[in-house]
Structure formats: C-alpha cells, structure tokens
Write a structure and sequence with these properties.
mainly alpha, 2 domains
Length: about 200
C-alpha cells in the first residue's frame, strides 16, 4: 500500500511538472489531437516501468498462487488417497476379523450341535436301557409275586384241607360219643325197668 501511495505522489509530481510546460506552450495545446498521444507517451514514460513491474509481480503472484493451488490440490489428493487407503485397510482388517469370528462361531455351533446330537443319542440309549431293565425287573417281580401267590394258595389249600379233615374227625368223634351215651342211657333205662319189675315180685314172697 505504501508503494502505491508513493506511485500516486510521484505521478502527481510529474503531472505538476508537465502542466506548466503545457501551459507555457512548449508542448501541444490540449485541444490538439496529438495531445492525447503525447499524454499516453508521457504516462508510459512515467508509469510504464512501474506498470510492467506490477504486471510482472502480478504474474509472479498468479504463478505462485497457481503453484500453491496445485500443491494444495496434490496434498489434498495425497491425503485423501492416504485416508482412503487407511479406511480400506481398516475395513479389510475388520472384514477379515469378522469372517474369522464367524468361522469360529460356526465351528463352535457345529461342535455344539454334534455334542447335543450325541448327548440326545446317549440319553435315548440310556432311556431304552432303563426301560428294558424296568420291564425285566417288573417281569421278575411279577413272576416272584405269582410264585409266592401260588405258594400261599397251596399252603392255604393244604391248611384248609387239614382243618376240614380235623373238623370231620372231630364231628365223627362227637357222633361216636353221642351214640355211646345213647346206648348207655338205653341200657340204664332197661336195667331200671327190670329192677322196677323185680321189686314187686320180691315183696310178694
């Protein structure tokens, strides 16, 4: 900004120097058509170097900005490529880890399924064995109960036969004793009658 101010001040100074010359008549009159050309030449002499310097600096600044923009674009491109590579690497690693975990879990599920199948088969076999043992034990117990029942029935029949025989014998004995008592009573009755009949005859004698 200070450089532009100095340029304006120098331009005013040169204009101040040229105006008296133009008024003194050393140069063409302002109404002269060649005056504008002379003014352009004077401006080119006074400001041409500075304008070219400014153009050169503007060109350098433009080139610098172009280079900075290109460097920034390349840097951003490298950064995006690096970020893309990092993201891709992380995604690949995550995918690989998830795949391995899925494989491990799949193997665990398969093993667990196999173990459960074997356990179910073992339990089913044990159930069949227990059922067979229970059936055998039930049959054995039933056979023992049947045999014991038959033994008890035979014993009861034998005891019933013995009791019946003893009762029959006792009844026979009772009948025999009753018969003997009846006969004895008849003999005693007959004897008493005879005695009764014999007493009057003895009294008569």
């Amino acid at each position: 900004m200070s450089r532009s101010i100095s340029m304006d001040q120098s331009a005013d100074a040169h204009r101040g120097q040229t105006e008296p010359q133009l008024q003194s008549g050393e140069f063409a009159h302002p109404d002269d058509p060649s005056a504008s050309g002379n003014l352009d030449k004077i401006r080119d002499i006074l400001f041409g170097a500075q304008a070219r310097e400014h153009e050169r600096r503007f060109a350098q600044l433009e080139q610098h900005l172009i280079r900075e923009a290109a460097d920034l674009r390349n840097d951003l491109k490298r950064r995006f490529e690096s970020l893309e590579g990092y993201i891709k690497k992380e995604v690949d690693a995550l995918t690989s880890r998830l795949t391995k975990e899925q494989e491990v879990r799949g193997a665990s599920v398969t093993k667990l399924t196999t173990d459960l199948t074997q356990l179910a088969a073992t339990l089913e076999e044990k159930a069949h064995q227990l059922e067979a043992q229970s059936s055998h034990a039930q049959s054995h117990v039933l056979q023992q109960l049947t045999a014991r029942t038959n033994e008890l029935a035979d014993d009861v029949r034998a005891r019933h036969a013995e009791t019946t025989s003893a009762l029959d014998e006792a009844v026979k004995n009772l009948r025999a004793e009753k018969t003997d008592r009846t006969a004895l009573a008849a003999i005693l009755l007959e004897a008493s009658q005879r005695l009764a009949n014999e007493e009057p005859s003895s009294n008569r004698v």
